[in-house]
């Protein structure tokens, strides 16, 4: 495997990426991250997270996501046996919100925000998570994602699929589920990635993340898992300790552009990645993840070749199941900082078995 940038080279006074602090550029966000690998050696005297010792019941009539349960609005869930989608009972976006008035000063701008929010249950059992589901069950989740992005994408320019897994990531319900928010506007992250990917294609003649996937497939040092259609890497510019980026090998703009074989292989690589995550500290690994692809709505008729479909995984755990990374202080006021290098994180994940510890 190739060395990380600068590692093992004589320039810069014997610089070694795993020993010496340096900054790395994130072309997708057009910003930088400070890498301070030597800090991982310091003793930890900070907060320790509490591990859940309670067994999650397979079915709980008081859990509003379970089949047959009554939700807060009085509606009763069907006795579903696969995936189940319903409108969020407390949506952040609604389709009929009025527009704000004109601003009287450039420092006080407001704009219309409309949309819909849906909840999608992955499985009828509350004691399952994606890495413990079968490939067929994960494929059903993927198919439902595609259906939702296609349906909502006809009306809205941005459809954000995201999963918050674990109480550490703010998930208030252990039932396996994600959320899908469709908005009348492009959110900040979408606008940023649209700009950087458009610029990269203009300057280099190839979509940024297609080029990146080809580079990482060749270099190998940040590769976690791969198959014929997909690869997962700890990005060169990763911020979170075990952050990963899931990428298709061919040029794909949107989820709904995936062929049947790519959907099957996506289920396989997701299962392998998430099993490795759980095996890292032998715990149900918390994370926030989400899909980014070319905008929809009116953008369906526009040239979006600069976009490449991808999924971000942002897990907070750092040293163990009870020690997490905090984005505070310097990270909030200056720029992102990480301790262990992306290469170290990838090597550790790569070495883990693909059979779940349970």
Give me a quick take on this structure.
This protein has 7 helices and 14 strands.
> SSE string, helix = H, strand = E?
HEEEEHEEHHEEEHEEEEHEH
Quote the CATH topology of the domain at 187-350: HIT family, subunit A
The CATH class of the domain at 187-350: Alpha Beta
Number of DSSP strand runs? 14
| CATH architectural category of the domain at 187-350 | 2-Layer Sandwich
Helices and strands in order:
Blueprint: H1 11-14, E1 22-26, E2 31-35, E3 84-87, E4 115-121, H2 135-153, E5 158-165, E6 177-183, H3 188-204, H4 208-219, E7 223-226, E8 230-233, E9 244-248, H5 260-281, E10 287-292, E11 310-314, E12 317-320, E13 323-324, H6 330-333, E14 336-338, H7 342-350
Parallel strand pairs: 2-14
Antiparallel strand pairs: 1-2, 3-4, 4-6, 5-6, 5-10, 7-8, 8-9, 9-11, 10-11, 12-13
Helix pairs in contact: 2-5
Written overview of the protein:
The chain has a domain at 187-350: HIT-like (HIT family, subunit A), CATH 3.30.428. The chain is built from 7 helices and 14 strands. A hairpin with a 4-residue loop joins strand 1 (22-26) and strand 2 (31-35). By secondary structure, the chain is α+β, with helices and mostly antiparallel strands. It has helices spanning 11-14, 135-153, 188-204, 208-219, 260-281, 330-333, 342-350, and strands at 22-26, 31-35, 84-87, 115-121, 158-165, 177-183, 223-226, 230-233, 244-248, 287-292, 310-314, 317-320, 323-324, 336-338. Helix 2 (135-153) packs across helix 5.
